[in-house]
Design a protein that fits this description.
Elements: H1 7-18, E1 25-28, H2 38-53, E2 57-62, H3 72-85, E3 92-94, H4 99-111, E4 115-118, H5 122-128, H6 146-157, E5 167-170, E6 185-189, E7 203-205, H7 207-217, E8 222-226, H8 233-242, E9 250-254, H9 266-274, H10 289-295, H11 299-309, H12 320-334, E10 336-338, E11 340-341, E12 344-349, E13 356-361, E14 371-376, E15 379-383, E16 403-406, E17 411-419, E18 425-432, E19 450-451, E20 454-455, E21 460-467, E22 487-494, E23 506-509, E24 513-517, E25 527-532
Parallel strand pairs: 1-2, 2-3, 8-9, 10-23, 12-18, 16-19, 21-25
Antiparallel strand pairs: 4-5, 5-6, 6-7, 11-22, 12-15, 13-14, 15-20, 16-17, 17-18, 21-22, 23-24, 24-25
Length: 540
Amino acid sequence: MEGSGNFIEDIIDDELARGAVTEVATRFPPEPNGYLHIGHAKAICIDFGIAAKYGGRCNLRYDDTNPSKEDVEYVNSIKRDIEWLGFKWDAELYASDYFERMYDCAVSLIKKGLAYVCDYSAEEIRQSRGTLTSPGTDSPYRNRSVEENLTLFKQMREGKFADGEKTLRAKIDMSSPNINMRDPVIYRILRATHHRTGDKWCIYPMYDFAHPLEDAFEGITYSLCTLEFEDHRPLYDWVKVNCGFVPGPRQIEFARLNIKRTIMSKRYLKKLVDEGRVDGWSDPRMPTLSGMRERGYPPEAIRAFCAAAGVAKSNGETEVAMLEHFVRDSLNKSADRVMVVKDPIKLNIVNAAADEECLVENNPNADEVTYRSVTFGKELYIDRSDFAADPPPKYKRLVPGGTVRLKGAYIVKYVSHECDADGNVTEVSCEYIPDSKSGGVNAGMKVKGVIQWVNAKDSIDVTLNEYDYLLLDGDGDFNDRLTPDSKKVYSAKAEASLALAKPYDRFQFIRMGYYSAVGSYGEGRYEFNMVTGLKDSYGK
């Protein structure tokens, strides 16, 4: 294939050309111990995207080898998020599907003299492993006979020992420069009810042992993972070779996605959920895919962002403005423009006789431009920021003696205004200029600017949720970097058409930003989450 897009595809192109592989098979292997986040989106796009490019297959496989942290809630959320992102797996599989086969592989290693049962505690194993500059020391149990190891491992499975009392370790090289190769633990005793196998098992394989076997069992040709697994690749290859899978799958590492001011750790995200600092995994402030869906991010924007972030061999950090750029670019093309007044004051049209309809353009960027009807009448709302009794320099909205255009309607001219006892403007009176709507003889009059408005008679009350990033910029302790008041709630007046919106419908609120109807929108609950602002700060 000509013109491959990244180094992974270069490797695949070469191996296909040489006949080293005859198909491309990948997998996306999440652990069901939390919700997927934006970092997983990159891996999903790579795993599924490469399989699709080469006409291959991609499995969804749950790494459910640690039942103490896993739950069916996470299993279901992962499937929902992958489908929402726009991908479909060829097979839905689980590590637990292979527990018996993995056990048999461990027995075969014992029979070959390549694994042994160790009585060391976790701390003793850690201390004996050595350092980056000094070799480890052999366990006193390293030279147990094959027969004794087989008996002990069988007894581990039968529940004869307490949690942590014994482990099964691979017998490799305690002086290896790669610490991962210094007799790693491949099975541990853990009494915890598994979400699929119940209490059938009390021993569970470790990830570094289970993962290459799962890939081999499924005929995966390319095990694509992030750079933190690069040092684990020799162990991955050791397991597949010594368990009889040659050549077997090939592990290739790529740089993980890091985004400024964004939490990219399920452990920290779970901490926020458990401590009640956010409203669950789907809180719109969360960088989880379910949180982004609630906030109103289009899935195609996330895919475009992941494609632009690229597939690199070294880690870096991406500006969060880049993600927002792709969200904004997508919504600019797809979101209808509507009028909402966030801080309303009354605008009286003194010469208006009766309500009349005005046609307002829905989206100037749509393939086919359409219009909707809004009602113009004697009492309207405009935003407080759109009138200044004592205007600052370069102010381009309504002022005493001035004129301004009401979006989609007439040009209006200032008449008077009223204030409360504290000097705050409470209402403004204007007269509209006849024939000043688009196409009218007075439509070309020069005005200060164009402002949004809603009819007081048929406007609806809406709630606006606006968000900041969860993390402050810079470095430091996680708790010290949490943004205070990262969610703010406002009441606003909106045009009547928004009463007909459906959950997750997205709009551009004119001159305010992009907003999405909440998942429970409707039946009197008119609530919107702010997706992103209008200003694009990403340097393309």
